[in-house]
Amino acid sequence: MENHHKDLLREVFGESSSDSEDNDPQPQPKHKHPIPSWEQIKPINGLWLCRDFLSSQHQYSLISAVLKEGWFTEDSHNQAMRFGDLPEWATELSNSIRKAVILGDHVSESTDLAMSNGGTKPCLLPSNILWREPLFDQLIVNVYRPGEGICAHVDLMRFEDGIAVVSLESSCVMHFTQVERISDIVEAGERHPLIGKIPVLLTPGSLVLMSGEARYLWKHEINRKPGIQMWEGQELVQDRRISITLRKLCQVD
């Protein structure tokens, strides 16, 4: 497993200083694209957004690959699920997500950040999620037409921690609301109001990661009914939207 970690790091950063002749103390990324910029969505622990995850060309290629699967040839078909061995493009997408975490801004500030479970520093994904194999083994693709969205929900407990959502085509606002629990509302005889809805703008090519509290203690929803999709005072134009969700099934003993 340790050698596998090193291989992945070497693939992203190139050879380390111990392997190079110039003894450069800092690994130089050999990624041809700009380093992805990650945004922590506060106050939700474990919720991260990468707006520039996919280039325009990568988005086009991914949409083409999805549509070539033939899952959505009929208007009545708007969802497809796959378990276990995923299509090649989905496996490549999973690898890109892992690389984006390793290569991201927060990882570049501290090379140990993404591999740390302890301490007070935020991490994009805990190491037990980042380095598991496979990273994801369940795929769900949804095609949303104007006005179609998803109700507020927490993903089923049959899936492990660590969920990735890639957005394609039309932009939308996803709202997060706390799961209402008695322990959260009443403490020492006093009522504590829940935090209101947290809006997150999902643009084409963006990536959302949910782990920990964001995965288990917050519901997420997308309401695309007329007049609801607002951002900075402007209503978003609602066209077709494709979402790709990657998860990992819990192991059954």
Q: What does this protein structure show overall?
A:
This protein has 253 residues and is an alpha+beta fold. Helices cover 23% and strands 26% of the residues. The protein has seven helices and 15 strands. It has helices at 2-13, 56-68, 88-103, 105-109, 127-130, 182-185, 213-216; strands at 38-40, 47-50, 79-83, 138-144, 150-153, 163-169, 172-178, 186-187, 190-191, 198-202, 207-210, 218-222, 230-231, 234-235, 241-247. The strands form four sheets. The protein has a seven-stranded antiparallel sheet with strand order 1-2-11-6-15-4-3. A four-stranded antiparallel sheet has the order 5-12-7-10. The radius of gyration is 19 Å and the shape is globular.
The string of secondary-structure elements, in order, is HEEHEHHHEEEEHEEEEHEEEE
Strand elements, count:
15
What proportion of the residues is helical, as a percent range? Answer: 10-25%
Q: Which percent band covers the strand fraction?
A: 25-35%
Rounded to the nearest angstrom, the distance between the terminal CA atoms is 22 Å
Total count of helical runs of at least 4 residues: 7
Major sheet details: 7 strands, antiparallel
Radius of gyration: 19 Å
Q: Tell me, rounded to a whole number, the average pLDDT.
A: 83
Shape: globular
Task: Outline the secondary-structure elements.
Elements: H1 2-13, E1 38-40, E2 47-50, H2 56-68, E3 79-83, H3 88-103, H4 105-109, H5 127-130, E4 138-144, E5 150-153, E6 163-169, E7 172-178, H6 182-185, E8 186-187, E9 190-191, E10 198-202, E11 207-210, H7 213-216, E12 218-222, E13 230-231, E14 234-235, E15 241-247
Antiparallel strand pairs: 1-2, 2-11, 3-4, 4-15, 5-12, 6-11, 6-15, 7-10, 7-12, 8-9, 13-14
